[in-house]
Amino acid sequence: MRTGVWLVGARGSVATTSIVGGLALRAGLAGPTGCVTELPELRGPALPAFADLVFGGHDVATTPLCKRAEALATAGVLPGRLVAALPDELAAVEEELRPAPGVGSQAERAAAIVRDLTDFRDRHRLDRVVVVNVSATEPTATAHPAHADPATLRDALTGPDEVLPASSLYAYAALTAGCPYVDFTPSTGARLPALHTLAVERGLPYAGHDGKTGETLVKSVLAPMFAMRHLTVRSWSGINLLGGGDGANLADPAANAAKVESKQRVLGETLGYVPQGGTRIDYVEELGDFKTAWDLITFSGFLGTGMRMEFTWHGCDSALAAPLVLDLARLTAAAHAAGRVGPLTDLAFFFKDPLGSPTHSLGEQWTRLAEFTRALHTGRESADGQAG
């Protein structure tokens, strides 16, 4: 199943690491550590092979992909030996990267994106293309009345106003082009009524939001522990320090607020109440593509005895995110092939703020993901058997 992976923000750290990782896996130069779709519980015939993934994308940046990969190798994000071993493969992906459309009405820009996606799919004879947003976090957006239905939205896009945030414009273009859409950021993306309706009309799945890679991943494990042990969490405060492009973008208060809101939601929905405290994100340029999170939890147990817990998380955001991007592309492609339509709620395992998720517990999310994937594989095997 030849599958296109079209990355919005294709020259960024997460996208570059995903591309280098996918190429290295295809060439047999690296193992799939971090790719949960390669665990026995999820691996199977419904998922496109790494060798079947073809990369392309949009970006406003113009730095050549090979230079971005070399810079990430210098920063310790990527192994230099892999970048040195893949010059031809990286050059081939470079040919598939396009400048993000920036001229004309939103309707005209969406049409340009649709042309790029369609040309990419046709040129490589792909079965499908999954569009994955790994671009910078947007400020929180408020839905416009014009978002009520696809036809009204389509008309509104022809005007001079910016009706949609960039992530939603890409979602609109992806769905219009017949491509499933995944938002790995906390941006608005497909979370608008008109875009949901459009996805259903086109028979397409979509997924999101905000990849769960570090501190929130730990929260989704620890919060259910406190709830199941009937311990009362009095406060939960966190400080996140990060550099790189994501950190620089989150220096903007509006983008920072959108990210913090996404990170905090797991506590209220897992514990059933919101403890005192909050999460702070600070940009520290010196950290580059690495990040550190420190959390302090105070809680009380039997007879009100007060206790506390602390944890520190040090990680490389791109190296944590990239395998999940590959996982999501494979799973969403398989869901599309199986005829799944609308929000893929069973992919909540991957996200801080998942679409329609009934639980934020990582263990319960894993169970739902395994059942979802098993159904994809079973359906594929049944179809293969009937075809034979």
Task: Give a verbal description of the structure.
Helix 1 crosses helix 12 (317-337), helix 5 packs across helix 7 and helix 7 runs parallel beside helix 8 (193-202). This protein is 44% helix and 18% strand. The chain has helices at 13-27, 65-74, 80-85, 87-94, 106-123, 150-156, 166-176, 193-202, 215-228, 244-249, 253-271, 317-337, 362-387; strands spanning 3-8, 53-59, 97-99, 128-133, 181-183, 205-208, 232-242, 279-283, 290-300, 306-316, 342-343. The two termini are 17 Å apart. The mean pLDDT is 91. It folds into 2 domains: 3-211 and 319-383, NAD(P)-binding Rossmann-like Domain (Rossmann fold), CATH 3.40.50; 215-316, Dihydrodipicolinate Reductase, domain 2, CATH 3.30.360. With 388 residues, it is of the alpha/beta class. The strands form 2 sheets. Strands 3-2-1-4-5-6-11 form a 7-stranded parallel beta sheet, with helices on both faces. Helix 1 (13-27) links the parallel strand 1 (3-8) and strand 2 (53-59). The longest helix is centred in the C-terminal third of the chain and has 26 residues, at 362-387. It is built from 13 helices and 11 strands. Residues 214-318 form the Myo-inositol-1-phosphate synthase GAPDH-like domain. This is Myo-inositol-1-phosphate synthase. InterPro entries: Myo-inos-1-P_Synthase (IPR002587), Myo-inos-1-P_Synthase_GAPDH (IPR013021), NAD(P)-bd_dom_sf (IPR036291). It holds the Pfam family NAD_binding_5. GO terms for molecular function: inositol-3-phosphate synthase activity.
